[in-house]
Amino acid sequence: MIKMVLIGTGNVANHLYKAFEATKDVSIIQVFGRSNKSLKSFSKNTETCSSISELKDADVYIIAISDDAITSFTQKLPFKNRLVVHTSGTVAMNVLSEKNRKGVFYPLQTFTKDREISFSQIPICIESEEASDLQILHNIGKAISKKVVEINSEERKKLHVSAVIVNNFVNHLYYIGSDLLEKNNLSFDLLKPLIFETALKLESHEPKEAQTGPAKRNDKKTIENHLNQLNNNAFKELYIQLTKSIIDSHGEKL
Amino acid sequence: MIKMVLIGTGNVANHLYKAFEATKDVSIIQVFGRSNKSLKSFSKNTETCSSISELKDADVYIIAISDDAITSFTQKLPFKNRLVVHTSGTVAMNVLSEKNRKGVFYPLQTFTKDREISFSQIPICIESEEASDLQILHNIGKAISKKVVEINSEERKKLHVSAVIVNNFVNHLYYIGSDLLEKNNLSFDLLKPLIFETALKLESHEPKEAQTGPAKRNDKKTIENHLNQLNNNAFKELYIQLTKSIIDSHGEKL
C-alpha cells in the first residue's frame, strides 16, 4: 500500500482524490488545503490539514495547486528527501525544490466540477529524477489508469500546446458555431451529433484523412457564401485563416 | 408505405440507403446511378437503373449527388409534378427544376465510407414548397430519426456554416495537434481521451461556460511559451488569432 498526501483542493485535486479513494493500492492519508472551508468535502473520510508543519510522513506528495504557486510551496516544505511531484502540464520538473526528490504526475485530461470522469483511459504522464521513483509513480498511475507513459519535461511542453489546441481552441470553435445559431434562433443541439461524430471518427481515421469540406476541396463558391453569412468580423477573419491553413496543409494552392 | 427512388451512389446515398432499408414505412423501389459499377452494391437487393428514362413512379425522389450537379439533373427529369428533394446543406431549395414539387431532406451529419452511423440522433432538416409535401418528408424523416426539424433555406445556410466550423475546422485543429505530436515522436492517442471529453462535455455545459485555458485567463506567460513551441509559422499565426478571439469573446482585453 502506497501512502499518499494530496496537496490542493481544486478541480484536479478533487478528481484525483475520488479516483485514488476507489483503489486498493494507494491510500490517501492526508489532504492539505489553505482553509478548513476548502477541505470540508475531504474531511469526512480523510485526515486534513492547513498547516505545512502538520504534513504526515508519506511515500509520495501529489501537488495539485495552481501552476504559479508550485515552486514556492515546495520551498516551504519542512522535510527533505521525500518524493514530491506536481500534476501540471506546463511546469518543468526542475522548478520543484531541490530539498526533495522531484517528479511529475500529469493526467492529460480536462477536469470539470460536478462532471464525473473515468480515469481508466486517461493518459498519466510521469517523470522523475530517480529511476526508483519512476517505479512508484508508475504504480500509482496504474492504480487508476490503463495508460501510464513516461514523458519528459520537453515532451510535456509539446503535449500541453497540443492539448490547448484540441481542447481550448476546439471548444472556442464550438462557441462560434453556437453563437451563430443562437443569433439566428436555431438550437445548438442540432450540431451536437455532428460534433460527437467528428471527435469519435478519430477512433478509426487519422485527422489528415478525415478532413473534408469546402476548404479541403478549395471550393471558392461555398467559401465565399459562408463568408457572407458571418457578420462578426473576428469570426470572419478566423474562417479565412482556418480555410487557408487547411488548403496549405493539404497541398493545394489558393 | 412510402415509395422512394434514391438518386446517387456516393457516401450520403449509401448511408441513406442502409437507413431506409432497415425501416418498415419507407420502401426504396429503385436506385439511380451513372454507371453499373457504382450501382453494384445496391443491385443485390434493389432494382437499379442508370438511365433517367427508366425511373419508376414514386412518392418521393431523394437526390444525393454532388451539389453542382443537382440543378441540371432535375431539369432532365422526364416527369412532372412529383416530389423531388435534395439532401444538400448548401444548395437552396429553389434551384430545383420548376417542373416538379420541390423539397429538401438534409441529414446534418458527416458521413464516412466504411463507418457505421446511427441515424436515430441525426437531425433531419426538411423544407418543402407545399404543406402536404412537408408531411411526407416528416414521415420519411421520422422513419429513420427521432429529430426531424423544419428548416428553411436561409436557416440552412447558417447551419451549414456552423457545421463547417465545428466539423471541418475542428478536425483541422485535431490535425495540427497530431502533426505537432508526430514531429516530436509522441503518439496522437495521448490526446484522444481529451478530445472525446471536450466534445462530450457539451452534453452538460454550454461552450461559453466550458471555455478554459491560457487564452481565457489571458495568461501571457503560457501563451508566450506555447508560441515558442510552434515551429510552423501558419500554425503560430492561427494560435495567435484563436487566442485573440477567445480573449475578445470572453470580454477581457489584451
Structural overview:
Two copies of one chain form a homodimer. Chain A is α/β, with parallel strands linked by helices. Chain A has two domains: 2-151, Rossmann fold (3-Layer(aba) Sandwich), CATH 3.40.50; 156-249, N-(1-d-carboxylethyl)-l-norvaline Dehydrogenase, domain 2 (Orthogonal Bundle). Chain A contains ten helices and eight strands. An eight-stranded mixed β-sheet of chain A has the order 3-2-1-4-5-6-7-8. The longest helix of chain A is centred in the middle third of the chain and has 30 residues, at 153-182. The model of chain A has no long low-confidence stretch (mean pLDDT 95). Chains A and B meet through α5, α6, α7, α8 and α9 of A and α5, α6, α7, α8 and α9 of B.
Topology:
2 copies of one chain form a homodimer.
Chain A: E1 2-7, H1 11-21, E2 26-32, H2 36-43, E3 48-49, E4 60-63, H3 70-76, E5 83-86, E6 101-107, E7 124-128, H4 131-144, E8 148-150, H5 153-182, H6 192-200, H7 207-210, H8 214-217, H9 220-229, H10 233-249
Parallel strand pairs in A: 1-2, 1-4, 2-3, 4-5, 5-6, 7-8
Antiparallel strand pairs in A: 6-7
